[in-house]
């Protein structure tokens, strides 16, 4: 259980500093099981900050979304820091961006919250449909305590957590300036069970499965925009000269897009699951990312988003890298 | 308006008859979501749904539309496209049907868009009233109802053991004339049941958006810092625009191989910075705050000023799917209360 | 398999080693299958996985990337980076149901004209057995 007062005080202290522009955290949503990202520009804004199992968003996407408008004459660039409230998985995104030199370590103030699991919005919506008033969900050991209309129901976490939380190995942020509460050690291990089960299928079955999924894609690029690690100033799909992926929406181009994005996240994806959460058509994008995460661990013994000093996977090499596929 | 009764047993038979002579689209289950797809048999349709994930405007205003074909070369052989589709969209909700009427304004006017208008004029909308509106439905905020027959050709309302059928347009009458054997005239008690069911559905809708004098109010707060606070959390994902039944921004591109090609129109989204990026590098909407503000203004200020109708039907898809909970009901209600 | 199926294979050959090796195979009049269509790149590290995906989309049945032997890259390390990239793209294609043997990589030096011919023979045979690439071809239906 996270002490919200401690969180609000930490945010207040951070915002009060002259060199911090704002802190982004979570506040209560507008209905049902929603929470929403919230920005504190002044100390009093910190009072609306909360943390609960409903805080499913990855706020590490905001430091890279900072817009830098062209400066007027005589105007100095705004070099103030940005504060971010992160859970364990979110902090890995910031570490990975620092590793790639996308962000300077001293440009971001990390307020870490040890997390013991959030809810999967689709699962909790299916279990308790039609909630208009804000619902209170609290962390209660190995259960979630859900209070609707004054009545509290306790549901086992395993029933409502997304898959990424069930195999979470980093509940405590790996990098932080302030930690709210005590560190949590994880007893879970990622065993890639689903990936291994899928690998056993035949080539034909695999393609049939993915063809059906890619047919659904509407190329809204929500997956790309919600991902904290997709921060290219010009995405390859927006390039017109040369145009790598056509804008028309059909299986061929959708496959090219999804494979291209999965590849660009190879060795960088930290498994926060935002892409799958925001996809309006319910495409299981994490399956692709998890497969590459497993293979990269086996081939190169590399885990993304842990060590800010390490070298990114595809920007470096070892002379004895596996090459049994090379003629 | 004709008022008829269709028994629940006769509904699949009616649909199967329609399939024999027409291309019929109905809500179909696709894993966890419902999408309007073509059906070959009545039992493929699933009418136990709230609303489709993907708006049925995609059947009239296709996501990828070929405008004309050409063969590259000095003579430039251009081949126009024959738009020859007659669709029956079965099970469309009244809000989505209203959105088609709203889109009509954008595609008519001085230059009539044949790709949209031909399909619109030849398609038949057979509506299905909402008996259990969702959490984020707010069609009643626009003086509409979940069982409104204003924008469909035929409306079916579930009144327990049968459907109350209202035949509104000539297109609707043609369809019913061909399949007369499934329908019986309605009694006054049936009409009463429909009105009660409609009232019950309206009372289920708890969320309302205050849109009184919204055009004037928005005019006064264009430069207000309210928009920065609203748009700070927007990540520019574009889901709201792709799933909105009234959004209609598009882009036109040429696709070709070495021997042939086509000019195509694809959906685009104003939430991308590239949408307004000019060749000089200047962008009139450089920040996400500009783009979010533009979206709200387009729906609640520019469109009403041009065509006298708010370009939002209250379907609630953008609220359900916005990853950062930017709630249009909340935004517009609060915008109306901002002191300029 | 269809006896008459002649696969279309795109080869991205690095300028300094494998392209020169292919040249040598030509000047030495070594016979090898004509199915390989060569695109010269300056280094195998130039090959972006989108090239591979685009090639498979536009009608290629297979893709071959030729680079310098490890340690011999003209730009010191391009072939090492390409080695990692190709391993990853092969795993990804396999997971989606596209046979990873359609995308091959080889180290061919400028003096190995014979080896180049052998490689092309082997890759053409393998892809003949796999059949035409059908999965996510650009339909160009208009």
By DSSP, the count of extended strands of chain C is 4
Largest sheet: spatial strand order of chain C: 2-1-3-4
List the total number of helices of chain C. Answer: 4
**Any idea what the radius of gyration of chain C is?**
15 Å
Overall residue-averaged pLDDT value of chain C: 93
At CATH level 3, the topology of the largest domain in chain B is Aspartate Aminotransferase, domain 2
* CATH architecture term of chain C: 3-Layer(aba) Sandwich
Biggest sheet details of chain B: 8 strands, mixed
**What is the H-and-E element order of chain B?**
EHEEEEEHHEEEHEHHHHEEHHH
The CATH top-level class label of chain C: Alpha Beta
Query: Which range best describes the helical content of chain B: under 10%, 10-25%, 25-40%, 40-55%, 55-70% or over 70%?
Result: 25-40%
What is the overall silhouette of chain C? globular
Beta-strand proportion of chain B: 15-25%
Please, how many domains of chain B? 2
Shape of chain B: globular
By secondary-structure content and strand pairing, the structural class of chain B works out as alpha+beta
Strand line-up in the sheet with most strands of chain B: 3-2-6-7-8-9-1-10
Q: How many independent structural domains of chain C?
A: 1
Give the chain pair forming the largest contact, with residue counts.
A-C, 46 and 39 residues
CATH fold-level assignment of chain C: Rossmann fold
C-alpha end-to-end distance of chain B: 47 Å
